[in-house]
Design brief:
The protein is an alpha+beta fold. It has two helices and four strands. It has one domain. Helix content is 28%, strand content 30%. Strands 2-1-3-4 form a four-stranded antiparallel beta sheet, with helices on one face. The longest helix is centred in the middle third of the chain and has 18 residues. It is globular, with a radius of gyration of 14 Å. The protein starts with a strand and ends in a 12-residue tail after the last helix.
């Protein structure tokens, strides 16, 4: 499985790509954890309609064997306790990445 996370939007017009990260060489336990975390994130984002506001968005693309691809969208609502944001943070930590809070605009 290859994972790519793209961070876009916000006041600075961020466009940052994290990855691709190949999970194939990771141990079986970590790959299983990633699969469970992706399923949880998919459950949290499946009924969410993107808003028109200009906030920060994270696109999580997971490509599996045979190039089957899944893309999940997480909007940063500004609430670090939001379940989708927390699930994204957990997934990113498993991948060795950090979900950084947006910088305040002066």
């Amino acid at each position: 499985m290859i994972l790519t996370i793209r961070k876009t939007g916000g006041p600075a017009g961020t466009d940052e790509v994290l990855g691709p990260i190949d999970a194939t060489p990771m141990d079986a336990e970590t790959r299983h954890r990633l699969s469970v975390q992706l399923e949880a994130l998919a459950d949290l984002t499946s009924s969410h309609e993107p808003s028109a506001r200009e906030g920060i968005r994270y696109e999580v693309e997971a490509r599996g064997p045979g190039h089957a691809s899944t893309c999940l969208l997480v909007e940063d609502t500004g609430d670090p306790g939001h379940p989708a944001v927390q699930a994204l943070g957990t997934l990113m930590r498993t991948l060795g990445l950090e979900l950084r809070a947006p910088s305040p605009v002066a």
